[in-house]
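Researcher: I need the complex structure. Ligand is nicotinamide-adenine-dinucleotide. Inputs:
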Amino acid sequence: MTRPQQTISEKTIERLSVYRRYLKELQKQGKERVYSHELSKLVSGTPAQVRRDLMPVGGNGCSSKGYEVNLLIEEIAKLLDCNDKQNIALIGAGNLGRALLGYLSGSRDNYDIVALFDNDPEKYGRVICGKRCYCIDQLAEKIKEYKITTAILAVPGEAAEATAEILIGTGIKAILNFAPKHITTSSTVFIETLDITKALEKAIYFSRKNT
Amino acid sequence: MTRPQQTISEKTIERLSVYRRYLKELQKQGKERVYSHELSKLVSGTPAQVRRDLMPVGGNGCSSKGYEVNLLIEEIAKLLDCNDKQNIALIGAGNLGRALLGYLSGSRDNYDIVALFDNDPEKYGRVICGKRCYCIDQLAEKIKEYKITTAILAVPGEAAEATAEILIGTGIKAILNFAPKHITTSSTVFIETLDITKALEKAIYFSRKNT
DNA sequence: CTAAAGTTGTGAAATCTTGCACAGCGTGAT
DNA sequence: ATCACGCTGTGCAAGATTTCACAACTTTAG
Ligand SMILES: NC(=O)c1ccc[n+]([C@@H]2O[C@H](COP(=O)([O-])OP(=O)(O)OC[C@H]3O[C@@H](n4cnc5c(N)ncnc54)[C@H](O)[C@@H]3O)[C@@H](O)[C@H]2O)c1
Ligand SMILES: NC(=O)c1ccc[n+]([C@@H]2O[C@H](COP(=O)([O-])OP(=O)(O)OC[C@H]3O[C@@H](n4cnc5c(N)ncnc54)[C@H](O)[C@@H]3O)[C@@H](O)[C@H]2O)c1
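Model: Output:
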């Protein structure tokens, strides 16, 4: 019985990532099984949504006993990570870039920041948080060398589009962008922009609307 | 003719924030009018969506001449900011917190981080990036004093839920949360969680799915 | 063994969001 | 003055996502 493998929505992928994080916590606590309604509370969803999200990961999930935590983590990993550690590049070793580096350098077993890039001679050539920082000119070369498929873009807004173009040119497949710029491309590269200002302005707006 | 003022969706609010940012750039460039199809390109949407988003901001928008940039910025500001500068608190002056502080301390005219809070004696009592850092124990007191309605939460995951509870207790109205924890509450406080790991795992997943 | 309680997987309904398409209008050309 | 063009505002359809609701199954108790 092979998986139907119809495309999975972005939202479902996001929630699977979140479920997995909680599942790992449960695993640490020694919990062996979990019900959809437990997961749903951790995430403000409904049990039905959790069950639907879990459908494409493969049907372990046993009536009346719920899901087996270990197995579920494994199956989600198969789907999200393809059992394959991904090499990531971080472009822009500024304030945000270094914070991210510290945050993401911890014990992640499914991806790893393997190279930094910057155009500031003060920064490239050094090792920051245990990772080598290269000159931005070496981007294409190093991305090939390290087999990097995903990049985190943390350069100033003015440089974001041009840098993204270069990245796309190197054959990279996805970009997580922190610059407050929408990056347009005709290629099929997946671009996710995390727009902090947008999130804050939204919070401010709704701070006035609630009750 | 008063605005219908039916509730505006979260997605529309987010896009309005983004439109405004681009409009301000256009303004700087001296552009006076803009068409929905121009805005839509900057954001990968359709012109129809832009027009629909702009409907609740009040109908300036003139056939054949498009929207007047200055006016549109003003109208969006009325909606998003209520012509009112918001005071924001930043909880957790760690790596991310300080990066955010630097980023958000620039020339924002609609909100301002006015106070920091931390539980580390090394940090509170000081002035960081021009803002005073208080001990977390003074949270309630200072939030009242500064009339703060929105908080940015950048404390470690373990402390996030407890800190959010305290925040909610102070009567705050919205929280922008960076900790990788879902914050559950029965109150009507608006909570937006910006989950960076989730975004990265999503990017990694789609890096493999595209073409 | 049977029944009760509680859970999964999923079709179908409900809701939310986006895109189409066109009436109506302002503009500029003829 | 008239007309063609291109844009806005919006009813409505299409699409996407969430929720409901129930059959099927497992476990536990009697
Ligand atoms: N700091 C934050 O908390 C924060 C929050 C939200 C968004 N952002 C966005 O993230 C980006 C980075 O912010 P930051 O605060 O780290 O800025 P920063 O100025 O501290 O760092 C930017 C880094 O990029 C490098 N750089 C500049 N141009 C480059 C280029 N062409 N190629 C390679 N490297 C280049 C600089 O040398 C510097 O090291 C900006 O777009 C900013 O808008 C930052
Ligand atoms: N650094 C990043 O780029 C990054 C990215 C994504 C998410 N996050 C999340 O953001 C949060 C902060 O990350 P960070 O890298 O800045 O961590 P950090 O350890 O550098 O900073 C945390 C700060 O919070 C303070 N703190 C701890 N407990 C507190 C409490 N109970 N009350 C008040 N202050 C308290 C600490 O003293 C410290 O200053 C974490 O939840 C982390 O998971 C960070």
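Model: Summary of the prediction. Chain A touches chain B through 60 residues (CB under 8 Å).
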